Amino acid sequence: MAAMAELISNSVQEMATNGQEPPVKYFSKGNDAGVLDAPVPLIEIPVVDLGLLTSPSTSAQELEKLKLALSSWGCFQVINHGMTSSFLDKIREVSKQFFAFPMEEKQKYSREADSIEGYGNDMILSDHQTVDWTDRLYLTISPEDQRKIKFWPENPKDFRETLHEYTVKLQETNDFLLRAMARSLNLEESCFLDQYGEQPLVTARFNFYPPCPRPDRILGVKPHADASAVTFLLQDKEVEGLQFLKDNEWFRVPIIPHALLVNVGDQVEIMSNGIFKSPVHRVVTNTQRERNTLAVFCIPESDNEIKPADQLISETRPSLYKKVKDYVSIYFQYYQQGKRPIEAVKI
Length: 347
Fold this sequence. Notes:
Helix content: 25-40%
Structural class: alpha+beta
Largest sheet: 8 strands, mixed
Strand content: 15-25%
Strand order of the largest sheet: 1-2-10-7-12-5-4-3
Oligomer: single chain
Family: Belongs to the iron/ascorbate-dependent oxidoreductase family.
Shape: globular
Domain Fe2OG dioxygenase: 200-300
Organism: Populus tomentosa
Number of strands: 12
InterPro entries: DIOX_N, IPNS-like_FE2OG_OXY, IPNS-like_sf, Oxoglu/Fe-dep_dioxygenase_dom, Plant_2OG-oxidoreductases
Keywords: Iron, Metal-binding, Oxidoreductase, Vitamin C
Number of helices: 10
Radius of gyration: 20 Å
């Protein structure tokens, strides 16, 4: 219970509400600490239309756009994904409602000290770790028999049903996109999906970023790339915060309320032999407004061997990565040390 009590006392939302000075562990270290809220340019990442990807007359052009987006930025905004704007707003609303509940209600879903699942914030794995200015609700979605329903809020009343409906749709979209990614590289359509597997791990992370008194020194999420194959982000409808790193420069991600932001993770970078880039990204804070987002991570089956597709290996482009299983298990060791986990599997 002591560990849980410490976790709850560290609620970022409570610190923000009470006007507490953030502890030193929240302050970023490194070269850019002190200028985290400096103005940065806006990305113009492609918007990919799933309707155009499925139409014979437009699919080739849209596939080329998808390939260019993933080989240059590693991300894109997807529209025509089969979910209405009103449904996306409903998901945003249940998230806002949950984080607005009194602390005692949220504490019913508190994560245990040795697990990321449930309500809480960063796991403290090192004395030197920089802690993110965010509270989270982290849930396993799939395989369904691995769901820990005790962490799924009963309030709002439609939370569970809404999240289930959303993630079923996202998993269909994920499968479609993995096929499209393979086609864009002239590979067998099932090439990436076969490595992804039939029992993938799908997790959801609801993120709440309260106003922060020191946006010049404190990040909502420290720089990282994802351990997933594909990540879907439902952005806050009004408040920006997500930034991507390209050529050692940070860029802001624009908000398109009816779009989903998609980025590939390290495991698709490995499968594509480095053609698709798993982008480094971070979340900045601001003093004025809270921000809510929902990230869904689609992660290959842990027993599956992830490796560069054979057709993407040649004399001129040798294999850049070792074969790897259960990439997520090595990921967190490196991530909390501030290192890029994918460096560990490069040849």
